[in-house]
Structure formats: C-alpha cells, structure tokens
C-alpha cells in the first residue's frame, strides 16, 4: 500500500489543528514536518516547540525532515519532542554513519535524505543501517515548487538499489508531487509520497488525499 505523508509546511498555521484533523480523517500514514535553519536551505521554518505541540494533538507518526547543518546537535531533542522518523541530509553530515547510529540508539528511526543532484553512491555504506531514504525531487527549502524533470529515472534507480541491498528500506519521495505526476512517481518505485501544497492548498483536503491515493494505486 502506498503511504501518504502530508507536509505541514503548506498547512495553515493559524488553523493547524483543523488541518491535522482533516488529514487524520483521510487516513494518512504520517505527518511530514520540515525543519529548516536558514543555512542548509535558504528558508526558516518551525522548531522543537511546535513539534511538541503537534505531538500532543495527534497519534500519527511524526516524520521529521531536518534541513539543517550539523543535525547531530539536535537529534535527541527532536526525538524527545515526539519525532519517530528522523531524516538527515547526507550533504549536511560530515560523519553520516555516526549520525544514523545515534538516531537508532536514541530510539528514532533513521532516514537519509538526498538532494536531486546527490549521487546514490553516498548510500553504499549506510543503506543497511537505515529505515528510510528520502529522495528530493525539488531543491529543498520551499514548498510549492515544480517536480524536476527526469527524476523518475533516479527514483527507479534508487528503488532497484534498495531491492538489491536492503528491501526493508522504504523509499520516500518529496517535491512537486500532485495529481498529474503521482502515478509516474509510484510506478518508478516510491513507497511513501510527501505532498504539501497539493493537499493543503486544495479546496477539499480529505477529497484530495482520497484522489491522490486512488491515482497512486492505479484505481
């Protein structure tokens, strides 16, 4: 089954409780939470206090996407705040294996994110230590961007790598996914779809999630 992870970066922060309740009622699988520091990416988003507040109002797993430099400084804080999956960027970690190992030891599920231009070879010596790979199909930092042409091939290549080297790893794809391209992304190999503006900027959040899932599953 394809999993849907709404990205709350595109939610209405003046009415966040309602938006979370809407996606819960649509039976999504997790909440994707982007954390940006203004250094690794040219934007600043939410932090630990907001994540703690979200954890109080939902039982959905929290998928914390750390778009920050030196993420190892804050891993324990994000896990204590309620993070389940902790995703760090390979590009931001000088000692990636050590960071992944610390996530696991602290009780989180380690995940590694790759920017669009980052080669898959960075996973060669870490793929057996992680639970998920997040492949970015836009350059990270802002919601509402368009899917980069040709990224389906990279999704397919990554899926093949996962199947050969560690089939238990989930492949998450994030960036510009909407009603028009979700089928191609899933056919290429995605297990988890992150969608932000496609969901929260639609007229009917629950109906949109239902239609995205139908498209993803080829119904």
UniProtKB/TrEMBL annotation:
Organism field: Koleobacter methoxysyntrophicus
Pathway info: Carbohydrate degradation
Lineage: Bacteria, Bacillati, Bacillota, Clostridia, Koleobacterales
Catalytic residue list: 34, 174
The UniProt record lists the keyword Coiled coil: no
EC number: 5.1.3.1
Protein name: Ribulose-phosphate 3-epimerase
Enzyme class per UniProt: isomerase
One Gene Ontology cellular component annotation held by this UniProt entry: cytoplasm
Bound cofactor: record note: Binds 1 divalent metal cation per subunit.
